[in-house]
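Weekly structure sync, notes
Attendees: PL (lead), two postdocs, one rotation student
Agenda item 3: pending single-chain targets
PL asked that the sequence for the first pending target be pasted directly into the notes so everyone works from the same version. It is reproduced below exactly as submitted, 176 residues in total.
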Amino acid sequence: MNNEKLMENLRCIPDFPQKGINFRDVTTLFKNAECLKIMEDELYELYKDKGITKIVGIESRGFVMASALAVRLGAGIVLCRKPGKLPAETVQESYSKEYGTDTIEIHKDAIDENDVVLLHDDLLATGGTMRAAYNLVKKFSPKDIFVNFLIEITDEGLHGRDIFEKDTEITTLIKV
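Predicted structure, written out during the meeting:
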């Protein structure tokens, strides 16, 4: 899709959080009302006919558009967080990262087998966090699962899509 207005407002910060990384900063898109509207409209068009009942926002930048889209679609929102941040009983999924492991969790009663779930986060690079979220949601046996990112990085030899099964529907608004 690569909307011109979104591309103009996407900030790139070289060598953050470490040397050699070109960090794509979505906060510049979030602070711009026109960009927010464009992203909400594009996401709505992608998912308006999918029967989405729950949107899982990935901590923390994924919460922003997941919330806006949930309101527009008439869906609920589920927070996917790091351990210890959710107050009720949770289900967890651990995954490997470049330097060790990490864990994410959602409430045990957040999703059921009647739900159609959209997983949403800001950025697809290596895909590790989203793959863990996908595996976590699969434990609930929902009717269907869709995956969305605002940005997909393809210009740095990253292949985040490759860690998902080929039949997983993955959409992005911007490819860089």
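Discussion points:
- The mean pLDDT is 95.
- The longest strand covers residues 116-124.
Action: rotation student to compare against the earlier draft before next sync.
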